[in-house]
Amino acid sequence: MIDNVTAVTYINNMGGIRSVECDKMARKLWNWCIERKIWVTAAHLPGDQNVIADRKSRVFQDETEWMLSPLLFEDVCRQLGQPTIDLFVTRLNNQLPHYIAWQPDPGAVAADAFRFYWGEEIFYAFPPFCLSERCMQKIILDKAEGILIVPKWSTQSWFPRLLSMLIRDPILLPKADNVLTLPGCKNALHPLHKKVILGSLQARGIPEEARETILGSWRESTRSQYGAYLKRWINFCYKRSCSPLYTNVNTVLVFLSELRDQGLHYSAINTARSALATFTTLSSGNSISTDPMVARFLKGIFSTYPPMPRYTEIWNVSLVLDYIRGLPPVEELDLKMLSLKLCFLVAITSAQRLQTLHLLQLDQLTLNDDSAVFRVTKFLKQNRPGNVGFEVLLEAYPKDERLCVLKTLRAYIAKTISHYEMRS
């Protein structure tokens, strides 16, 4: 099935006299097929129906090409040293002439940085945030040296490893309009930029004295989750010369349809709808969250691409418990193994989110003979007005002290109390 009429004719006729090159290619194709006893028949498929083969060339996502402003990049290089190769870029946003693209690119020396050895040159990398941990593993594996741009996410599991890898003091980039730029969109602001959100509130007529407070209702996790879709929406509107703040329902449906065509399923598209509802006003006066046509579209997505469960099986916890029983007494464990054992026992006995476990602090601990209570005073995902503050209860397990979270906690405190006091 080919959308080129000339190619169809030359293949079916086993060559031709109009074009020497087409004749050579057709003969080469048929000789290859004859050697393998294959018969080929070509049929014409109109270009507008050739969606599978042409999908990559028809869907161009230049909104993914955010980069550091060139002036800021030069300042970073002056402080940290000049890199020689740029990773994870395209010909649109490369900072250095020598670069590796994330897909085939006519100006790149190669494609897919993870397929190559990083230790031969001083690299510069501004990867998608979801690849931060994988980049750190690659740097360690290749013993590479360079400049890595990552978000300051101290709650991420990879953040301590990042700090241990530093060979110079890190640079905290400024919070300014021009830190990130998008090639081809001179005045584009990152979707999570405060001014973009404030501009949306201003366009809705929200009083200035109330905007900052309303902006505070967005938690960091929500901003991170919505950010990808708001970024796509803003650049979708830039391409069509329409306002991202005021629009009609048909434009929203086209945008959601593009997300569907890019392979997103119901959950992701529904998240995109929620993100747009906080940012955009429909000309009809309806909210994007409650508009009947948008709701009907989401029901169609749900029926056509039903969401699948994230996990299809459970792991056998008894295997881990048996392993823990075989460990030496807690007094003999080194700090790493003691920490791992404590984290597992706290997680399995309290059944709390990782966010909650990360916020457990010794200065908020009440330790009793048969229990321990951590008071969590910081904001959690499950906090609501009238439901602020949270306690995590850990009880002793006298039936088997090898699995007792309270005994493990006491051993951990005894081994780390000197470090904690020095830090305090």
Report on this model:
Keywords: DNA-binding. This protein has 424 residues and is of the alpha/beta class. It has 16 helices and twelve strands. α7 (194-203) crosses α8, α11 (266-277) runs antiparallel to α12 and α14 crosses α16. The longest helix has 20 residues, at 220-239. The mean pLDDT is 83.
Structure at a glance:
With 424 residues, this protein is of the alpha/beta class. It has 16 helices and twelve strands. Helix 5 links the parallel strand 5 and strand 6.
Give the spatial strand order of the biggest sheet. Answer: 4-3-2-5-6
Q: How many DSSP-defined strands?
A: 12
Please give the radius of gyration in angstroms: 28 Å
Q: Looking at the structure, what is the overall shape?
A: globular
Number of helical runs? 16
Jot down its keywords.
single chain, 424 residues, alpha/beta, 5-stranded parallel sheet, 16 helices, 12 strands, DNA binding, DNA-binding
Q: Which secondary structure elements does this structure contain, and how are they paired or packed?
A:
Blueprint: H1 5-12, H2 20-35, H3 55-58, E1 67-68, H4 70-80, E2 85-89, E3 99-101, E4 110-111, E5 122-125, H5 132-142, E6 145-148, H6 159-165, E7 180-181, H7 194-203, H8 208-215, H9 220-239, E8 246-247, H10 249-261, H11 266-277, E9 281-282, H12 292-304, H13 317-325, H14 335-350, H15 354-358, E10 365-367, E11 371-376, E12 390-395, H16 405-423
Parallel strand pairs: 2-3, 2-5, 3-4, 5-6, 8-9
Antiparallel strand pairs: 1-7, 10-11, 11-12
Helix pairs in contact: 7-8, 9-11, 10-12, 11-12, 14-16
